[in-house]
Design a protein that fits this description.
heterodimer; A: alpha/beta; D-Maltodextrin-Binding Protein, domain 2; 5-stranded mixed β-sheet; 4-stranded mixed β-sheet; 19 helices; 11 strands; about 45% helix; globular; B: mainly alpha; MetI-like fold; 2 domains; about 0% strand
Chain lengths: ~425, ~325
C-alpha cells in the first residue's frame, strides 16, 4: 500500500496518541482483582537500594508461601510518592498497599482512606510490637496499618573535634546520656575551642523533620496534644523548657544560623562538611556516613532532661480502604512484619525494628553493627503516649504550625510565651480542639 | 517576512472561464486542507484541554469548596476568597511575588538585550559565549536551584569563600531575609537571561543593516542607533518577553521551593509556594485553589492591559 506524507503523519499520530496518553496515566489499568478473583496486590513505596532489595526478597518469600499470588512492587521517588498516592486515591485507583511515614499516617487514616485491619488480624497480633509502635498506627482506637520499622535520632560526633575541645569519653549507656545541662556544657567547650565559622552541633529538624524537635518536648516530659488527642497541651512548663533550650542553640552560637527549621541545608550536610562537630541523626545515615566520611566518628545518645525521649520516626505499611483483596492485603502486612522479614529489612537498611522481640534480642546492622545498641537504646525511650500524638489525623497541619512558630522563635522574632501561645492556637485550629 | 501559505496558485487567479469541474476540484482541495488542518490541530487542542483547560476550570470549582482532597468537598461560596483578604501570609507572599516580578523582569530583559547586542556584533568566539549563556535553559529549575544552594550555602558555599578571599565579610544568604531574597533573584537571572538573549538575538538578526547605515549617514552615534533603530524594531520581541517574563515570575516555584522553602520567616514566600504548601502539605485544597485563581486573574489582567496598551505587538516586518 502506498502512503503519502499526509497519510503517514495522520496514521503515526493516531498510533502514538494512545501511547502518549497511557504514559500520562490516562489509559485504563488492568481490571480490578475482585472481579476476576485473581490474587494480585500492588505495593507502592520509595526506598534506598538496600530497602528495595529487602522488600523484593520478602515479596518473593510471600509469593512462594502463597501460590498464585503476585505482588507488584512499584518504586517511586520520595518527593513524588504522596502526590501520586493522593491523585490515585482521588481517582479511585490507588495501590492495595503503600508505605507511609508515621507523621503522615494520620492524614490518611483520619480521612477514611485506609483499611481498618481489625477484622483481618488475629487476636494478640498487637502484642508482638512495642507499645510505642502499635500506638503510632492507631486511628480512633483501631489499627489502620502495621508498624514496619522505626528510626530515632541519636548524636553523631566527630572524634577529632571533640578531642580538640578536650571532650574525652561520651556516654555509652542510656542511663548516662548527657543531661541538657551537660550537653550545653559540651557545646560551650566546643564553641570556645572552635573557630567562629564552625559550630558545636546541628539539629535535624529541617522540613518535616520538625517533628524531631518534639524529642526535646518529650525529654521535658511534655506533650503537644492532650490525652484526648484534640486539645493543645504545649503551652506548659515543659513546652517553655523545650523552646528555651532549643532557642539557646542559636543565641549561644551552638548551631549555624542556617540550621533553622526551614533551611534548605540539611543538618547532616554541615556535619559532613565538618562545619559542625556533632549532629542529631537517625541510624539510616550510617551506611552513607561510613562510605563517605574520612574522619573518625561515633554515636552517643540524645540528651535527657526530666526523662529520656526521642522522635518516633520510620514508616508504617498500610492497605487502602478500597482494596479488592482485604484479606490478602492484611496477610501481606502480617507477613512483612514477621520476625525474619523485619530483621532482614532493619539490618540491611540500618533501621530499627518495631517488634518487641527484636528490640529485646537486638539486631546487627550490616554496616557498623556496634552502633545498633545505641540506636535501639534511644528508641526505647519513646513512649506510646509520645508516638500516639504524632499519629494525629491533623499532624500535617500541626507540622506547618510548628515550622512557622519555631522558626520565628529561633530567629528571635517571638518570645517563648508568644511562641507557645501561637503553637497552641494553631493546633486548636487544626484539630478543632481547645488551645 | 510576509508568509502567504494560503495564497492560491497563479493559474487560479488568471481571468479565464471557470468550469464547474474545476470549481468542484477546488472545493475538494479546500475540504482536504481543512480536514488536515483540524487533524494536525486536534491533538494539541485535546492535550491543551486535558492538561490546561479542564484543570483550570476544576481549580475554579474547587476554590469555592472546603476540601482536603479526599471525597467530595463542601461548597462554601466565597469563604475562601474572604479568608484571603485577612490572611497576612497571603499578602506577604503576594507582595514578595510582585517585588520579585518587578525586579527580575526588567533585569533579565536588560541583561538579555545587552548580551544579544554584544554577541550579535563581531566578537571572537561569540558562538561559545552565546552557548554558555543559553546552557542554563537546558537545565531544570530544580537542578538550577540545587546548584544555587551549593553556591549560596552560608557555611561552605563558593560565594562566601570568594567574598572572604577578597576580604569582604560573609553574607547570611540563608538566614537573612533580604539576602535570601537576593540569592533567589540572582539564580533566577542566571537561569533566565540566556532565554531573553536568544529571543532578542533572533529579533536583531531580522533588522536590516541598511537601517543602521542610513542612521549613521544621518549622524546618529552608537547610542542613537541603539535607541532609535534597535530598540523600536525589537518592539515585538520586547512585548513577547515582557509578557512571558511576567508570567514566569508570577509562577516562580521550583527555585524558591528548593533554595529557601519560602524562608527565612516567609521572606521569600511567593504565591505558588504558599499555594503548594497550603494544598499539599496542610491539605487545605479549596483555599490553595483560591490562591491559584487569584494568581490567574492577576496574570490575565496584566496581559490584557499590556496587550491593549502595546503599540508594537503586531509589528511584523
Amino acid at each position: 500500500m502506498d502512503l503519502n506524507r499526509r497519510q503517514f503523519m495522520i496514521g503515526s499520530g493516531a498510533l502514538t496518541l494512545p501511547a502518549l496518553l497511557a504514559g500520562c496515566g490516562f489509559a485504563p489499568r488492568p481490571a480490578a482483582t475482585s472481579t476476576t478473583g485473581s490474587q494480585t496486590l500492588t505495593f507502592t513505596t520509595w526506598g534506598t537500594d538496600a530497602e528495595l532489595a529487602s522488600f523484593s526478597r520478602a515479596i518473593a518469600l510471600f509469593e512462594e508461601a502463597n501460590q498464585g499470588v503476585t505482588v507488584e512492587l512499584n518504586s517511586v521517588p520520595f518527593g513524588q510518592i504522596f502526590t501520586n498516592i493522593d491523585a490515585q486515591l482521588q481517582a479511585g485507583n490507588p495501590p492495595d498497599i503503600f508505605r507511609v511515614p508515621y507523621y503522615t499516617f494520620g492524614s490518611y487514616a483520619g480521612r477514611d482512606q485506609l483499611l481498618n485491619l481489625s477484622p483481618y488480624l488475629e487476636s494478640g497480633f498487637s502484642d508482638q510490637f512495642t507499645d510505642a509502635a502499635w500506638a503510632a498506627v492507631q486511628g480512633g482506637q483501631q489499627p489502620f496499618g502495621v508498624p514496619h520499622h522505626t528510626d530515632t535520632s541519636a548524636i553523631l560526633y566527630n572524634r577529632e573535634a571533640l578531642d580538640a575541645a578536650g571532650i574525652g569519653a561520651v556516654p555509652t549507656l542510656l542511663e548516662e546520656a548527657w543531661t541538657w545541662e551537660e550537653l550545653s556544657d559540651v557545646a560551650a567547650r566546643l564553641r570556645a575551642a572552635q573557630p567562629t565559622d564552625t559550630y558545636p552541633m546541628a539539629y535535624n529538624w529541617q522540613g518535616n523533620g520538625v517533628t524531631r524537635w518534639l524529642s526535646l518536648l518529650f525529654q521535658a516530659d511534655g506533650r503537644f496534644l492532650a490525652e484526648n488527642l484534640t486539645d493543645a497541651a504545649i503551652d506548659s512548663t515543659a513546652g517553655a523548657a523545650a523552646v528555651d533550650f532549643s532557642s539557646s542553640f542559636f543565641t549561644q552560637n551552638f548551631v549555624p544560623p542556617n540550621n533553622n527549621v526551614k533551611s534548605a541545608t540539611f543538618a547532616s550536610d554541615t556535619w559532613y562538611s565538618q562545619t559542625t562537630a556533632m549532629v542529631w541523626s537517625g541510624a539510616f545515615a550510617i551506611p552513607d556516613a561510613t562510605n563517605t566520611l574520612d574522619f573518625d566518628w561515633g554515636v552517643t545518645f540524645a540528651p535527657r532532661n526530666e526523662r529520656g525521649g526521642g522522635d518516633f520516626g520510620g514508616n508504617a505499611l498500610v492497605a487502602t480502604a478500597g482494596t479488592a483483596n482485604p484479606e490478602l492485603a492484611a496477610a501481606f502486612l502480617d507477613f512483612m512484619t514477621g520476625e525474619e522479614q523485619m530483621r532482614d529489612f532493619c539490618e540491611t537498611a540500618s533501621l530499627l525494628p518495631t517488634r518487641a522481640d527484636l528490640t529485646e534480642s537486638g539486631i546487627e546492622f550490616a554496616v557498623r553493627p556496634e552502633l545498633a545498641p545505641i540506636f535501639l537504646g534511644q528508641a526505647s525511650t519513646v513512649r506510646a503516649e509520645d508516638s500516639s500524638q504524632v499519629a494525629s489525623p491533623n499532624m500535617s497541619s500541626i507540622i506547618t504550625v510548628l515550622q512557622d512558630n519555631l522558626e520565628a522563635a529561633f530567629a528571635g522574632s517571638s518570645t517563648t510565651a508568644e511562641t507557645l501561645a501561637s503553637i497552641a492556637e494553631g493546633i486548636a485550629v487544626a484539630t478543632g480542639g481547645e488551645a | 517576512m510576509i508568509l502567504r501559505a494560503t495564497e492560491p496558485p497563479l493559474a487560479t487567479t488568471t481571468p479565464a472561464p471557470v468550469t464547474s469541474r474545476r470549481r468542484g476540484r477546488r472545493r475538494a482541495e479546500v475540504g482536504r486542507e481543512s480536514r488536515a488542518g483540524w487533524l494536525f490541530l486536534g491533538p494539541n487542542i485535546l492535550l491543551l484541554g486535558i492538561f490546561v483547560i479542564v484543570p483550570l476550570l476544576w481549580a475554579i470549582v474547587i476554590s469555592f469548596q472546603s476540601t482536603n482532597g479526599f471525597g467530595a468537598g463542601d461548597f462554601v461560596g466565597s469563604a475562601n476568597y474572604e479568608r484571603l483578604a485577612g490572611d497576612p501570609l497571603f499578602w506577604r507572599s503576594a507582595a514578595n511575588t510582585l517585588l520579585f516580578t518587578a525586579i527580575v523582569t526588567p533585569l533579565s530583559m536588560a541583561g538579555g538585550l545587552g548580551a544579544a547586542v554584544l554577541f550579535n556584533s563581531v566578537l571572537p568566539a561569540r558562538g561559545v559565549f552565546r552557548s554558555i549563556l543559553i546552557v542554563p535553559m537546558a537545565i531544570s529549575g530544580v537542578a538550577t536551584a540545587l546548584i544555587g544552594v551549593l553556591i549560596f550555602n552560608e557555611n561552605s558555599g563558593v560565594l562566601n569563600d570568594l567574598l572572604g578571599f577578597v576580604g569582604l565579610p560573609n553574607v547570611n544568604w540563608q538566614s537573612g531575609g533580604a539576602s535570601a531574597f537576593v540569592s533567589v533573584i540572582l539564580v533566577t537571572l542566571w537561569w533566565r537571561v540566556g532565554f531573553n538573549m536568544l529571543i532578542y538575538l533572533a529579533g536583531l538578526q531580522g533588522i536590516g543593516p541598511e537601517l543602521y547605515e542610513a542612521a549613521e549617514l544621518d549622524g546618529a552615534g552608537a547610542w542613537g542607533r541603539f535607541r532609535h533603530v534597535t530598540v523600536p524594531l525589537l518592539g515585538p520581541s520586547t512585548f513577547f518577553l515582557l509578557i512571558l517574563n511576567v508570567i514566569y515570575s508570577f509562577q516562580v516555584f521550583d527555585i524558591v521551593f528548593v533554595m529557601t522553602g519560602g524562608g527565612p520567616q516567609n521572606a521569600t514566600s511567593v504565591l505558588v509556594t504558599y499555594a503548594y504548601n497550603t494544598g499539599f502539605v496542610t491539605r487545605d485544597q479549596g483555599y490553595a485553589a483560591a490562591i491559584g485563581v487569584v494568581l490567574l486573574l492577576v496574570t490575565f489582567v496584566f496581559t490584557a492591559v499590556r496587550w491593549s496598551t502595546s503599540r508594537s505587538r503586531d509589528h511584523v516586518e
